[in-house]
Amino acid sequence: MKTLKERQDELVEEFSMFDEWLDKYEYLIDLGKNLEPFPEELKTDDRLIKGCQSRVWLDATDDGGIIDFRADSDAIITKGIISMLVSVYSGRTAAEIAGDDFSFIDRLGLKENLSPTRANGLVSMMDTIRSIAEKHLTK
Question: Residues in domain Fe-S metabolism associated (predicted)?
Fold first, then answer.
């Protein structure tokens, strides 16, 4: 498995292949289409990420100190964004996730090229992932 930084660098490189933001949005949509199916019974209020205009569900399991994430959204671009975050942070330790600065998002230029409501949702997704990791650190 690639290190966290290697996976982030890989994603930045994938996005850099596209010159236009319209193409990058299409790529995000494709990432969302590849997201593992999310069980309907897990689409509960306690798994909804607060602060997102769309509905985004995030489930985390801890398997021997490794956190695995599953997610879904009812909006296609948002689903791509959460899919991207799941691909980066799932399968990592709580310490790796909590200690990361999420700076690869700035390198992607994603926040600046999203609508304000989607950018706020992205921040909420990152905060929720970090918060889950921090809770697992204290266990």
Answer: 12-131
52 flagged as catalytic:
yes
* Helix then strand then coil, % of the chain, to nearest 5: 60, 15, 30
Taking alpha carbons only, the member of 42, 69, 36 closest to residue 55 is: 42
d(CA 50, CA 43): 14
- Position 139 scores a pLDDT of 66
Q: Whole-angstrom Cα distance, residue 121 to residue 24? A: 18
- The dihedral through the CA atoms of 26, 27, 28, 33 has a sign that is positive
**Catalytic pick among 31, 52, 110, 114:** 52
Taking only the tens place, the pLDDT of each residue in 56-84 is: 999 999 988 899 999 999 999 999 999 99
